[in-house]
Amino acid sequence: MSNILATITESVGKSLAKSDREIVQSILYSHNHSSSALQLKSLLGLKSIVQANSAIGRLGKKIYQLLGAHPDGFNSGEFQWWTVAAIGHRDDILGFIWSLREDVVLGLIAAGYSKSGVPLPEEVVPVLREGALKRITVNSYERNPVARARCLAEHGTSCVVCGFNFGTTYGAEAEGYIHVHHLVQLSDISEDYEVNPIQDLRPVCPNCHAVIHMSNPPKTIEQAMSLIAPNNSSKPMPLRSTA
Fold first, then answer.
1. Same domain for 134 and 40?
2. Are residues 174 and 90 both part of a single domain?
3. pTM score over 0.85
4. What is the distance between the alpha carbons of residues 41 and 48, in angstroms, rounded to a whole number?
5. What stretches of the chain adopt beta strand conformation (E)?
6. Is the dihedral of CA 103, 106, 110, 112 positive or negative?
7. Three-class DSSP category at 89
8. 84: how many CB neighbours lie within 10 A of its CB?
9. In the chain, how many domains are there?
């Protein structure tokens, strides 16, 4: 059933409504392809966690209708729709967390869900300390394709600190490549915080992003700009990936 599940998921993925597609895509791009309804509500600015619950349920139902069976062999009436597309567990902080099934992930990628932008390397290496969970949450804001797209649609793809633009320098192949920085400090993020991609995110090049995070708390955009030498007319070159 493994290959069939991936193939059917690909077909279903192409037919999802835009709102459901954004939610499913956000889970796909989250760490380990896992996310909670609370995380999705904050990340996408949803009015209610019901929107996330319903989206994953509709995905599972559509897959089941074409597959004709539950991946784990459950009979009709013995399961909830979301269990067709994902497995789940409860977290004391985040609530219930969905993890997309491996073959569902493959099917969504085949359906083009991974083509919303160039995959970025880790922008900031997380440090294991108190607040690490918030660091992971902030990384999800910066790396999520939906939040990134909304940020870049408003602010463009040039670095707001130094003005560097990958497309201008390297051509069409690099067009649109840029890091996205989350402006809100970890200490200011509460359980009811909801990210606003236009207000809270900014495009920055890898060099400037690294400089911003050289201090704790991170430098502001203005502080990073002030460090650029007045007589330095050359555009900073991006950091090479160490991956």
1. no
2. no
3. no
4. 6
5. 34-36, 86-91, 95-100, 179-182, 201-204
6. positive
7. strand
8. 27
9. 2
Q: How far is CA 106 from the centre of its chain?
A: 17
* 10: DSSP letter: H
Residue range(s) defining the domain that contains residue 223? 116-243
Residue 137 DSSP label? H
For residue 184 the two structure tokens come to 């809100």
- Kindly provide the b/e burial profile for residues 71-81, where b requires at least 16 CB atoms within 10 angstroms of the residue's own CB: beeeeeeebeb
Rounded CA gap, 128 and 141, in Å?
19
22-to-46, 90, 150 alpha-carbon distances in Å: 11, 23, 12
Q: Is the domain of 87 the same as that of 76? A: yes
Q: Express each pLDDT in 32-84 by its tens digit.
A: 888 888 878 877 778 888 999 999 999 999 999 999 999 999 998 899 999 99
The residue to which tokens 């606003």 are assigned: 196
SS3 content of the chain, % helix, strand, coil (to 5): 50, 10, 40
Place of tokens 């999520």: 144
Structure token digits, residue 205: 């090049």
Residues 160-219 pLDDT 10s: 999 999 999 999 888 888 888 888 765 555 555 566 788 888 999 988 988 888 887 889
Q: Which two tokens stand for residue 125?
A: 């290496």
